Prior knowledge:
The protein has 5 helices and 34 strands.
Amino acid sequence: xxxxxxxxxxxxxxxxxxxxxxxxxxxxxxxxxxxxxxxxxxxxxxxxxxxxxxxxxxxxxxxxxxxxxxxxxxxxxxxxxxxxxxxxxxxxxxxxxxxxxxxxxxxxxxxxxxxxxxxxxxxxxxxxxxxxxxxxxxxxxxxxxxxxxxxxxxxxxxxxxxxxxxxxxxxxxxxxxxxxxxxxxxxxxxxxxxxxxxxxxxxxxxxxxxxxxxxxxxxxxxxxxxxxxxxxxxxxxxxxxxxxxxxxxxxxxxxxxxxxxxxxxxxxxxxxxxxxxxxxxxxxxxxxxxxxxxxxxxxxxxxxxxxxxxxxxxxxxxxxxxxxxxxxxxxxxxxxxxxxxxxxxxxxxxxxxxxxxxxxxxxxxxxxxxxxxxxxxxxxxxxxxxxxxxxxxxxxxxxxxxxxxxxxxxxxxxxxxxxxxxxxxxxxxxxxxxxxxxxxxxxxxxxxxxxxxxxxxxxxxxxxxxxxxxxxxxxxxxxxxxxxxxxxxxxxxxxxxxxxxxxxxxxxxxxxxxxxxxxxxxxxxxxxxxxxxxxxxxxxxxxxxxxxxxxxxxxxxxxxxxxxxxxxxxxxxxxxxxxxxxxxxxxxxxxxxxxxxxxxxxxxxxxxxxxxxxxxxxxxxxxxxxxxxxxxxxxxxxxxxxxxxxxxxxxxxxxxxxxxxxxxx
Length: 665
């Protein structure tokens, strides 16, 4: 661990002065239920469920999902510029992380390529949950790394008497960004209606260094990330009918985004996505079941990549998802749910960057999640059986894409214990054996890929990816003071990822999807302590730390793009209508990289915020100011592929001041 990291960590842990933001209490809030953490609705879960909502989410939200969650213990980001960024959980990314919308499938191509953005804007989200453990099996082998559930109220789930809503507007200096959104809910005890709309517009992102840029072939230096400007807009309408014992609702939502692919000076992406969703629940007994829940969705997604304004490769994907889940009557101390999930998706890429053939994937799965408690000891366990078929449809114009057909039968099981010890202590542990079917591009890729600056080659002989993971931790809480420590490890028998072949094709290095034995291990810690009142108001010190270590056990080398160890703290203050925060996160240097990769230097990022609440009749106003990268530090992300393929081209954003207001009524 470097001296710079140690100094930064000490400074962060001793941070002083700052913002507090207690969760605001608007007149309408989402039901206080952890949707993914425990399908039985209990507050106690045996493995970590991290939640971000309310003012905490408002002050953390960025223009991408990955950057919004980046400071969460155990979560980093793929960071392909400010717009295209997916979460990385405990070193795992791509299609090992399942991103859900209200616990239902959300289809896009963000897992296929680092330069493809998630088809959602954080400004629309009301709560984010990050889950690991047995309950993750409900969502498939592709959730081996974890589940990120994005929760909104586009399908109302509870009756509402009257009309409520919220509106948000903000300006940020770093990217000259303007963003706004409006959400309105109305209804009675018999029906509920929802509508929302949003828009975000930003320029190139400011950084504390002069970077080269050559739009139109004219080179220049600028203190901004070249080609990082973006625009996004969308909205949704939805409604539900409530009846004695349940509800039935539907929604339609759209998202559009136009953004620069920062790996090139003039490459841009135009994305459009439309999602139709249906959801219903019957809460009265039906034979051996206490309740039954139905979810279904259909997504149509398309994005076009442009080079200098000329259309190039067109990516299309989409599919249908159906989930039927029933909660059975208690069997002695045993409570649980059983379910059926069916998915059918398609993918195509047409153009110069068609690195994978047109394909279709179908999946059928049966799963169960059970829980039994005796006194202070609770056990949970789950299992899932899948049938997955992946077909390459071939391409008559490209001989390198023949037709092919593969079938897989992944089977996954997991179990966990949660024990409330004497006093304020709680211990939990889990073990999971997970299998994941390889994706279409892992099997059939054969072409140049902009995001990796390489020629990618799949392996049609890949088998089901198998892993065994363990997680254990203790939690202590007394009043507002709390602490949690966790340690974990995951062993892969055949971890599938891109490896360098040492050869070149079409003037590009060849990267091939191969399977190797791999081990991921690490730990996380977080907590908060109420400080003595040395000035008016309430003072709290929040702290956090995490570390991931990943190794290719076949070669003994580190795996690429693993986030370094980090530690941070935030001093939070509240007094009447005011709140303030000052905090920092210190990142160690990442020198543990495979041969040929570049190490990254350590750095510390500071941030601050100030909030003020007002009540104007029926309208509550939350004014806020936020400063990101307070010291304007030049830094590069170790988990971004651009740090390796184009070092220095896309550093992390520089200092940015954001001013905003949120109104609730």
